[in-house]
């Protein structure tokens, strides 16, 4: 075993770099889904659509910047702007007009409502952006590549992949943890997550907290899409594929756990990268193998806590 | 109750009329039922209704929507020219996006409720495999307009289904032959294909052919990322480290665009020669992210700058009209749709000629397609006795020019259909094993891009 590790140290290092950047993208989407579930107790199937719309808006802004001869560096803040725009415009509308109306309904009905929303948003994407792939890779080209030594060889990585994706994910994680634990608004969210009724009894405006949390979750999904857009091609259906993986991350992490989403995204990212290197046939199924393995041992997820049934 | 009174003549007569009327109605009704329209359709219809299955949703809509656009344009042109035999044609589109089960229901609905006279189906190989037995059951002529699986006519014989283009075997074999001539000394290869039937089957065809024509090539990696993947960074790192001489990818759509862009960003194109049999459909989108010097194909004899089209004016008119109407160059699904439309027209005309101008029944129309030769936008296609279309294949090398903001093809080779298509009655996997390396010596000469 040790001999195998020493033989493959360099490859493991490369795989770890790949796994890290992949994990960053997965985390951005999963953490938003997790946050929303924590407060609303609704598994939002339309979360994948918000990812896709964030990506499309970012690509549109990027193409606008390029076509109008504006400085290329503007394409980087445009990614953030796309996420904020998507979260601020769509988040409140979806929460107020749709999710609030099914707040106290059966989970299956809530699931169906978000699924219907997902279908509507998919068609909306096609109406606005068409069916041909959309891409704007200015941020990747702007930052160039970094040569990583590999024995006597070098492997070019994009600086965007090595630094921007993991960097934004780490900042998001730390920012969220700080916000939830150190600020009043964050503590209100935690209170509503823990016990909505008790939070209300203490004077917290749970409806407002829910609205803000959902909008933040939508913005995080959109940020995931925006960050993916410079390398990915946005096509109809990209949201559906994202949401499936996000569900796997959230279920493995434990529903409602932010740090859990980070650790699980890392596990899945690294697991997938190692699979590509050493057992490519497992690449597609590795996230689900990890999920099943974790849930067999800890049905509540890696970081989930067992709840007693409330009567 | 009168009809039940045998002692009353009037009542008996009334009863007979009622029974006759009932029988007549039943007979008329049965004639209107699907599968029994053979006699009814011998009369010239008010319009020819054509059910067209294509992807209008999901990732494959990058092919399905251009295919639909081509159909709309060509149906309009046929109607402006007076229709087929004086009868207007009307397309009825259905979406393949929801999956095979939904498509089977749609196929039945098109035949039984819409009463379509002919069907074009489909892009998905799974949909084609599902509808060919259905076409025989419902006795409705069906043109397989885009799907690639070679298994349809190799595993079965169908009376009402015909493919108006090639299949996966010639599409992939021609890319392999081109590679063998362009880069005969390659020693290692890696594959990056989508993880579904097409990705696996096309690699199987390529590998089987390669092992017959150039045994001993090292397969450095077989990577099958999930269908719809947006991030290929891990696969690209792996390939950068392995340095295979050749990277094969039959990936398409947004997946291929992402793979090309990410490979370009990380200079993978500098280390390996890429073979991309479906890249023609991505050229306009990826632009010059795809460098010069890599092998690209078009799933047939399709290219708006074809080096030797049978009718230059026809190709130019189609390209110009499509660009004016849809603001894009026509990609291969547009050519495939054109072939289905041209086959439909030629099939009706052949069947009518055989009846001295009379309108053909479903069976007569189906019979006309077997052995039919019809024009394509670049050459012609012949439907063999087994229902498979014989279509040439064009493969070229990517080339940059100032005239277009995307790569064009140079050193184009048009492979004759007979050279690269599995003979009637044989299975591709068996036939590929019989190929001999000297086949490469007999390939047509490449033609350079002419500005």
From TrEMBL, chain A:
Compartment(s) of residence: Cell membrane
Family matches, as InterPro entries: ABC_transp_permease (IPR001851), BCAA_transport_permease (IPR052157)
Topological type in the membrane: Multi-pass membrane protein
Main location: membrane
Keyword line: Amino-acid transport, Cell membrane, Membrane, Transmembrane, Transmembrane helix, Transport
Parts of the chain that traverse the membrane: 20-43, 50-70, 76-99, 111-129, 159-180, 209-228, 234-253, 260-278, 284-306
Keyword S-adenosyl-L-methionine: no
Pfam families membership: BPD_transp_2
PANTHER family associated with the record: ABC TRANSPORTER ATP-BINDING PROTEIN, BRANCHED-CHAIN AMINO ACID TRANSPORT SYSTEM PERMEASE PROTEIN LIVH
Family according to the record: Belongs to the binding-protein-dependent transport system permease family. LivHM subfamily.
Descriptive protein name: Branched-chain amino acid ABC transporter permease
Source species of the chain: Pararoseomonas baculiformis
């Amino acid at each position: 075993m040790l001999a195998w590790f020493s033989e493959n140290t360099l490859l493991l290092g490369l795989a770890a770099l790949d796994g890290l950047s992949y994990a960053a993208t997965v985390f951005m989407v999963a953490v938003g889904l997790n946050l929303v579930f924590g407060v609303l107790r609704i598994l939002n199937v339309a979360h994948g659509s918000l990812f896709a719309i964030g990506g499309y808006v970012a690509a549109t802004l990027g193409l606008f910047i390029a076509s109008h001869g504006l400085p290329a560096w503007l394409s980087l803040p445009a990614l953030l702007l796309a996420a904020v725009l998507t979260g601020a415009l769509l988040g409140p509308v979806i929460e107020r007009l749709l999710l609030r109306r099914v707040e106290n309904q059966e989970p299956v009905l809530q699931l169906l409502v978000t699924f219907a929303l997902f279908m509507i948003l998919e068609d909306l994407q096609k109406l606005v952006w068409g069916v041909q792939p959309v891409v704007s890779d200015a941020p990747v080209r702007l930052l160039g590549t970094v040569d990583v030594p590999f024995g006597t060889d070098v492997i070019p990585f994009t600086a965007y992949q090595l630094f921007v994706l993991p960097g934004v994910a780490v900042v998001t994680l730390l920012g969220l943890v700080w916000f939830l634990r150190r600020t009043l608004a964050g503590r209100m969210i935690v209170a509503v997550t823990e016990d909505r009724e008790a939070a209300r009894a203490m004077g917290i405006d749970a409806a407002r907290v829910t609205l803000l949390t959902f909008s933040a979750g939508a913005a995080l999904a959109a940020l995931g899409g925006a960050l993916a857009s410079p390398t990915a091609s946005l096509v109809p259906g990209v949201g559906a594929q994202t949401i499936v993986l996000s569900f796997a991350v959230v279920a493995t992490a434990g529903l409602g756990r932010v740090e859990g989403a980070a650790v699980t995204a890392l596990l899945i990212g690294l697991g997938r990268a190692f699979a590509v290197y050493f057992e490519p046939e497992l690449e597609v199924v590795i996230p689900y193998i990890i999920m099943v393995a974790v849930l067999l041992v800890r049905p509540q997820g890696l970081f989930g806590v067992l709840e007693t049934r409330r009567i | 109750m009168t009809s039940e009174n045998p002692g009353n003549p009037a009542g008996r007569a009334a009863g007979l009329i009622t029974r006759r009327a009932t029988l007549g109605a039943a007979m008329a009704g049965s004639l209107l039922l699907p599968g029994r329209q053979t006699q009814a359709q011998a009369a010239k219809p008010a319009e020819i209704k054509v059910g067209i299955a294509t992807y209008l949703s999901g990732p494959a809509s990058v092919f399905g929507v251009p295919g639909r656009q081509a159909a709309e344009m060509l149906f309009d042109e046929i109607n402006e020219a007076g229709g087929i035999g004086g009868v207007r044609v009307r397309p009825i589109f259905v979406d393949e996006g929801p999956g095979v089960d939904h498509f089977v229901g749609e196929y039945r609905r098109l035949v039984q409720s819409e009463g379509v006279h002919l069907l074009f189906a489909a892009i998905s190989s799974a949909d084609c495999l599902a509808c060919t037995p259905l076409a025989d059951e419902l006795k409705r002529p069906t043109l397989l307009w885009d799907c690639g699986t070679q298994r349809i006519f190799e595993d079965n014989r169908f009376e009402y289904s015909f493919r108006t283009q090639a299949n996966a075997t010639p599409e992939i074999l021609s890319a392999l032959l081109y590679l063998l001539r362009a880069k005969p000394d390659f020693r290692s290869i890696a594959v990056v294909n989508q993880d579904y039937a097409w990705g696996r089957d096309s690699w199987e065809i390529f590998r089987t052919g390669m092992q017959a024509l150039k045994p001993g090539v090292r397969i450095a990696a077989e990577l099958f990322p999930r269908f719809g993947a947006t991030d290929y960074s891990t696969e690209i790192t792996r390939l950068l480290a392995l340095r295979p001489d050749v990277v094969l990818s039959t990936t398409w759509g947004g997946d291929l665009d992402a793979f090309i862009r990410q490979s370009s960003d990380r200079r993978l194109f500098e280390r390996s020669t890429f073979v991309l049999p479906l890249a023609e459909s991505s050229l306009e989108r990826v632009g010059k992210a795809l460098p010069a010097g890599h092998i690209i194909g078009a799933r047939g004899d399709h290219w708006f700058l074809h080096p030797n089209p049978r009718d230059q004016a026809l190709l130019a008119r189609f390209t110009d009209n499509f660009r004016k109407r849809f603001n894009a160059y026509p990609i291969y699904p547009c050519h495939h749709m054109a072939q289905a439309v041209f086959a439909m027209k030629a099939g009706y005309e052949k069947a009518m000629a055989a009846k001295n101008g009379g309108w053909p029944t479903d069976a007569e129309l189906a019979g006309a397609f077997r052995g039919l030769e019809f024009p394509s936008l670049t050459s012609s296609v012949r439907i063999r006795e087994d229902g498979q279309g014989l279509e040439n294949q064009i493969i070229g090398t990517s080339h940059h020019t100032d005239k277009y903001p995307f790569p064009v093809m140079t050193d184009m080779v048009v492979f004759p259909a007979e050279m690269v298509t599995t003979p009637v009655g044989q299975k591709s996997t068996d036939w590929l094993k019989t190929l001999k390396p000297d086949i490469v010596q007999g390939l047509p000469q490449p033609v350079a891009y002419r500005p």
